[in-house]
Amino acid sequence: MPTFSAPDGTQLAYRVIGEGDPLVCIPGGPTDSAYLGDLGGLSAYRQLILLDLRGTGRSAIPDDTSSYRCDRLIDDVEALRKHLGLPRMDLLGHSAGTNIATQYAAAYPERVSKLALIGPSPRAVGVAITGETRRELAQLRKNEPWFPEAFAALQAITEGTGSDWEAVTPFSWGRWDAAAQQHHTAGQPRNQEAVAHFAADGAFTPERTRAALAACEAPVLLLTGEFDLNSPPVSSARFAEVFPDATLVVQPGAGHYPWFDDADWFVATTAAFLRG
Fold first, then answer.
1. Does residue 74 register a pLDDT over 90?
2. What's the rounded Cα separation, in Å, for the pair 75 and 163?
3. Which domain covers residue 237, as residue numbers?
4. If you count Cβ atoms within 10 Å of the first and of the last residue's Cβ in the chain, which end, N or C, has fewer?
């Protein structure tokens, strides 16, 4: 597994899958990139450069825990670009990783050719997702056998009276079957210190980021699932308005992992965007 050095000397690892023009991929979590797989077969069209975020997977644990903060992780992405020798790059982020990708595009707009935000988290640009929005979207799943227990947990969380996040997990997949349950287990963050510091004070400066993104001329794809409570379509639409050139796509029947729910649909849509 190839490695490179971050600006603070931390050794970071990445995986390379497929051939063709490189697509740098930033996972969510924060966790390693293993749960992304090959993004449903996207590696048939692009060479995927899948970064293990610092302190996860085969990337080293940093000496300075404050370097886990989201805004500081953009330095790792820039170091990876330089390591790969790319004057500009196509960049893909998933979930919390879209906050890193968004802030990278704000800091280095001239370095981004295309930006794909999958299951986009709008926190970096200050778009709030209300509990009411999540509960309304959850009602689309009311005929699922697991719905009563999961919705009760969701309602308690959004009303501030509960914290059973595991119970709401089925909402994250278009189908909650054995394969989805296995994918969920495999993708759980292992480094809780990285999780705790990711959104620490100062990690997000929404007004500054929004202003900077006005200079980002790269085409942007925001792809979210029809059922995605983490990235509701209505919130993703507001997120899309921040960019000068953005397209919002809602994948039918998908949750927060659209390449898992319908790989063919996801790959066809994403590859078409990347081809331009």
1. yes
2. 33
3. 3-126+192-275
4. C
